[in-house]
Amino acid sequence: MVNKIDEGKNRASQWFDKVKSRFANWKADIARAVAGEIRKDIDFQLMQNPAIKISEVSDIPGYSGPAAFRKAFKSWTNVAPRAVRKVGV
Which pLDDT tens digits describe the chain residue by residue (89 residues)? Predict the structure, then answer.
């Protein structure tokens, strides 16, 4: 009888740990998504100011460099930042 109770406790504990881990991952995913959206909004606002160079736009939100900014921007818009700047935002 005691073994079945201990087995039930262990299963419940394992299930709780799994749920807790998944919830932590979910929270981290949500936080990354929100941070990404905020960064994207900042980028688009900065791109509207032609006085700010594209390389400076990449510095302000904290990208590792202009290449990382261009890659992110192109993934959102399917065009390079320079092409958007030429046409106007």
Answer: 568 888 888 888 899 899 999 999 999 999 999 988 998 898 888 888 889 888 888 887 778 888 899 999 999 889 888 887 776 65
CATH number of the domain within which 23 lies: 1.10.10.60
Q: Judging by beta carbons within 10 Å of its beta carbon (0-12, 13-18, 19+), is residue 26 exposed, middle or buried? A: exposed
CA distances from 62 to 7, 15, 22, 53 (A): 50, 39, 29, 15
Q: Report CA-CA distances (Å) from 33 to 36, 47, 78.
A: 5, 21, 19
Q: Count structural domains, the chain.
A: 1
